Amino acid sequence: MTQRLAPLSGIRVLDLSRVLAGPWCTQNLADLGAEVIKIERPGAGDDTRTWGPPFLRDENGEDTTEAAYYLSCNRNKKSVTIDIATEEGVATVKEIAKISDIVVENFKVGGLKRYGLDYASLRELNPRLIYCSITGFGQSGPYAPRPGYDFMIQGTGGLMSITGERDGLPGAGPQKAGVAVADLFTGMFATVSILAALQERNRSGLGQYIDTALLDCQVAMLANQNLNFMTSGATPRRAGNAHQNVVPYQVFAAADGHLIVAVGNDGQYRAYCNAIGRPELGTDPRYATNRGRITNRDALIPVLEEIMKTGKRDEWLARLEAAGVPCGPINTIDQVFEDPQVKHREIWRTLPHPTGGTAPTTASPIRLSETPVEYRNAPPLLGQHTEEVLREVLGWDAERIERLLAGQRSAG
């Protein structure tokens, strides 16, 4: 059989993004086989290169210049240093855009227009170009000119209003998520949008513009909470670790720790009651249906909390798993990577790195049977591929390459 190529083999991405949302998107594309050319500022590069400690350590245990944050979202890419504030730099980026399929950028609205690197300008050079802009609030509307960062978007977009302990309890108050979920979801929505535009281009032969906003993505990802409000008119509130629509679906304290019980239907609820030695709670008319358990939550949950405190965490987990009740521990991140399922799925990977010897990376959750993700290269050093791209992609000769590099060195 002929070996099948990576899904995006032959696709070239001009990556003008930095920090997280854009690089998360372009890492997805790179993982799927696209050639991603990351344009960075000479001498500085992506902001996240310095967002440490921690930094990757070399074979002697000394810090390198590569921050862990940067390493999280830039594998399989090529780094090219070009100063777009110069006429020659802009002309060079345009040369790459002419022979690229996709551009991803996250400058402020209108930020690239003054360089002639906006969609309208590049479309004239390459009508097949798919151009994805990622901003905080989108290309239109009263907030469009504002900068947007994940933390503020989690607040503006409603996530923090439903995240955290219930009002009136110790520790109550709005809480952001533990990772930059607005950025990450935006990167994923941008990836989906680009793949859709590529599929459409197969029919029309033409590219298009994609306007992706952190706020749009944050509001969209509220999912069922949006519909809770839209259908009832009642504003969802923080519920701590409890579920708004399913009971019992929360954290319980055991005698020696905590565990999650995630009962998803009435059959599982009856199995849960049997497993904890209280079958009568499974048939009680007040609690037999999820509707009843929601209505009578304040009566049921204290009873269950007292029962769960009488046993040890791992004993409860064993009993509930044997009864087919969804449950699990609350792992710290070091415990996550010791989990046998996580080990089996090989989620911790390593890649050769020019200064660190090796660099850890988290495996992509995209698992394709015939064309799996390839972990080709660690996140690149700043400017690591500048000469290679200018020579092999643009066809420049050594003299022209040196002239550009010399200009950047003198400017630095």
Number of helices: 17
Order of helices and strands: EHEEEHEHEHEHHEHHEEHHHHHEHHEEHH
* Class computed from helices, strands and strand pairing: alpha/beta
What is the CATH-assigned architecture of the largest domain? 3-Layer(aba) Sandwich
Q: What's the number of structural domains? A: 2
Alpha carbon gyration radius: 26 Å
Instruction: Indicate the overall shape.
Output: elongated
Biggest β-sheet: strands ordered side by side in the sheet: 5-2-1-6-7-8
Stretches with pLDDT under 50, minimum 5 residues: none
The main pleated sheet reads as:
6 strands, parallel
* CATH homologous superfamily heading of the largest domain: Crotonobetainyl-coa:carnitine coa-transferase, domain 1
GO molecular function, one term: CoA-transferase activity
InterPro entries: CoA-transferase_III_domain, CoA-Trfase_fam_III, CoA-Trfase_III_dom3_sf, CoA-Trfase_III_dom_1_sf
Protein name: CoA transferase
Keywords: Transferase
What does this entry show, briefly?
This protein is of the alpha/beta class. It contains 17 helices and 13 strands. 34% of the residues are buried.
Please explain how this structure is put together.
The structure is a single chain. The protein is an alpha/beta fold and 412 residues long. The protein is 38% helix and 16% strand. β6, α4 and β7 form a beta-alpha-beta unit. The protein is elongated and about 85 Å long.
